[in-house]
Recover the amino acids of this structure.
């Protein structure tokens, strides 16, 4: 299976940023993922929503990258949320306990917007 | 002043333009009570009197007419002296024929004017009458065709198997959908001595009731012959002899007949010009060939016999040309290559039929009428214990674990794993392959990782071997997210943790050269309830 290159976009909203992730989250995504996290936190967002709807594959290295992002976000006083995970990767988020620290929503429409939260 | 005879002669024009050269049957269309008294009149379409009447400005006196016309002679013989052509929209649709006046006087200009005025009003009314009658005839013809098709459908349904055979260790599925015009497809399962089973798929040329009748006859002859004769080729020879003497000369039957021993998977078959069955075994797809002429064409034919063994996990598809000869909107044919490719990427009985129908629907776009009957019959043999499903080598290059996932997914397709279990197996395979490429082979592209996939009744087993030699699994701490977030553990170290959580068993073995991780996923585990997280 050809690997699918990691790509991402950031949408800055009031109080939060949404990162749309696409492709494979593995070791090759490290630099891009770090860069996009930094871009998302520039506006001072208190919440960063990771949208996994376009992600087909996350391996253990990808999990480690997400753990890294989570650690960094917590250190910076931001919360991470996730949406668009497949059932399988939702299970992996539960097994790894990532879901204890990252709020998981089925899709972006069901995640609370900043105004709803305040 | 009123003519003593008024004869109406109507032309019945041939409807198809191509039929114009044939003699037009023009006959007197008279109310039934007049039929005995009024002789009919036939006018050939080539008769020069037709164009003459068609372009005549009004009533025509026959006495002064000079034409080399058989119809003219006939009319004179019948005592007709004057004709008023009934013309509407340039078309001659009938004639008002008059004999001599009772007074024997000539018709006066007033008479002629009256007749012409009458003709002008009658012509369109007659035309309407003709159209209504044609319309009614068409409706009746359509109803008759529909009734015939209904009869054909009933015959066919009645002679197709009511239920599928239950064969130990096999999964049988069948699908039949007639075209609107009802072709002559059929299939059958015939119970034979010693637990064997006869498999039949056939197609009668022609459509409708005649095809259905021949189909029913072929099936009966085949059933009788199959009980008496062992060899499929001999059975087809016998049917051919019977059909040659009994079916219409323009019809014939293609038919595949095979005898399957479900215990061994041995299939002996002969083919009378029918589509070749497809067998998928492992990842190979093959067509089963045996040559022979269609049935009912010529007596004295011989039918080659061939044999194939359907291994555990193998699946055979028998089908009719309605599938492969379906066209898309560009008139391209579905074709056998598309079929074999689809079979190669599927493996399961019912599911193969669903996939074929889905693929066909996507191909034809659902537009237009189904051209021919579609018949699909599949038999899949269960995988026995420890059947090798696939094995392959991968270069130790980053990202190649995705290829391992893809190949394993394809290899286990026939096992029908629940989606959740399949994803778990794929993740475990990916992680174990990454470990093998990295820790065993040091990501040296020249050193391959070997993957083998096998299945038994209880479990599917994937063995992943690198050339790093025997080594024990590092006694790494169980990843602790709190510790990782607190910076007390590296963020990494999830691979083995994931593998252990994804599959039911993981064992490690090795020697001086090789190191193997064996992953086992129990079949029957992971219920649907587990699927909802």
């Amino acid at each position: 299976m050809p690997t699918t290159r990691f790509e991402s976009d950031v949408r800055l909203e009031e109080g939060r940023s949404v990162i749309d992730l696409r492709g494979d989250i593995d070791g090759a995504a490290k630099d891009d993922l770090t860069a996009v996290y930094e871009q998302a936190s520039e506006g001072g967002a208190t919440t960063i929503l990771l949208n996994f709807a376009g992600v087909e594959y996350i391996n253990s290295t990808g999990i480690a990258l997400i753990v890294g992002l989570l650690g960094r976000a917590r250190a910076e006083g931001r919360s991470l949320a996730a949406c668009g995970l497949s059932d399988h990767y939702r299970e992996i988020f539960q097994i790894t306990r990532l879901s204890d620290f990252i709020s998981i929503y089925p899709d972006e429409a069901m995640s609370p917007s900043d105004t709803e939260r305040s | 002043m009123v003519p003593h005879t008024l004869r109406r002669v109507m032309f019945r024009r041939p409807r198809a333009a191509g039929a114009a050269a044939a003699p037009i049957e023009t006959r007197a269309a008279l109310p039934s009570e007049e039929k005995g008294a009024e002789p009919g009149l036939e006018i050939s379409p080539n008769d020069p009197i037709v164009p003459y009447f068609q372009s005549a400005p009004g009533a025509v006196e026959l006495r002064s007419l000079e034409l080399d016309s058989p119809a003219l002679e006939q009319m004179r013989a019948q005592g007709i002296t004057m004709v008023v052509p009934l013309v509407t929209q340039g078309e001659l649709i009938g004639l008002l024929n008059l004999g001599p006046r009772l007074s024997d006087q000539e018709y006066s200009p007033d008479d002629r004017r009256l007749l012409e005025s009458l003709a002008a009003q009658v012509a369109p009314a007659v035309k309407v009458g003709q159209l209504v009658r044609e319309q009614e005839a068409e409706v009746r013809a359509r109803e008759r065709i529909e009734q015939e098709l209904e009869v054909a459908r009933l015959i066919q349904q009645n002679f197709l198997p009511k239920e599928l055979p239950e064969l130990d260790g096999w999964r049988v599925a069948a699908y039949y959908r007639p075209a609107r015009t009802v072709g002559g497809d059929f299939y059958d399962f015939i119970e034979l001595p010693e637990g064997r089973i006869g498999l039949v798929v056939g197609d009668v040329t022609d459509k409708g009731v005649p095809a259905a009748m021949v189909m029913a006859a072929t099936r009966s002859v085949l059933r009788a012959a199959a009980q008496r004769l062992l060899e499929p080729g001999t059975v087809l020879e016998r049917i051919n002899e019977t059909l040659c003497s009994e079916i219409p000369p323009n019809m014939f039957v293609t038919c595949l007949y095979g005898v399957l021993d479900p215990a061994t998977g041995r299939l002996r078959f002969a083919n009378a010009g029918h589509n070749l069955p497809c067998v998928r075994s492992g990842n190979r797809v093959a067509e089963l060939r045996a040559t022979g002429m269609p049935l009912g064409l010529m007596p004295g034919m011989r039918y080659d016999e061939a044999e194939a063994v359907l291994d555990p996990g193998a699946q055979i598809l028998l089908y009719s040309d309605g599938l492969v000869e379906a066209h898309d909107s560009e008139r391209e044919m579905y074709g056998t290559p598309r079929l074999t490719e689809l079979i190669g990427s599927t493996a399961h009985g019912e599911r193969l039929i669903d996939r074929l129908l889905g693929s066909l629907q996507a191909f034809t776009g659902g537009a237009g009428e189904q051209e021919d009957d579609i018949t699909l019959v599949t038999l899949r043999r269960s995988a026995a214990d420890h059947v090798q499903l696939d094995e392959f080598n991968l270069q130790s290059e980053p990202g190649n674990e995705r290829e391992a996932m893809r190949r394993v997914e394809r290899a286990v397709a026939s096992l029908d794993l629940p989606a959740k279990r399949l994803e778990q197996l794929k993740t475990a395979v990916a992680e174990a392959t990454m470990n093998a490429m990295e820790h065993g082979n040091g990501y040296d592209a020249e050193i391959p990782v070997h993957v083998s996939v096998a299945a038994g009744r209880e479990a599917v087993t994937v063995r992943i071997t690198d050339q790093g030699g025997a080594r024990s699994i590092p006694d790494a701490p169980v990843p602790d997210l709190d510790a990782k977030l607190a910076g007390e553990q590296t963020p990494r170290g999830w691979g083995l943790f994931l593998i252990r959580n994804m599959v039911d068993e993981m064992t490690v073995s090795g020697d001086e050269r090789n190191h193997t991780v064996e992953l086992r996923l129990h079949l029957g585990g992971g219920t649907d309830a587990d699927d909802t997280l």
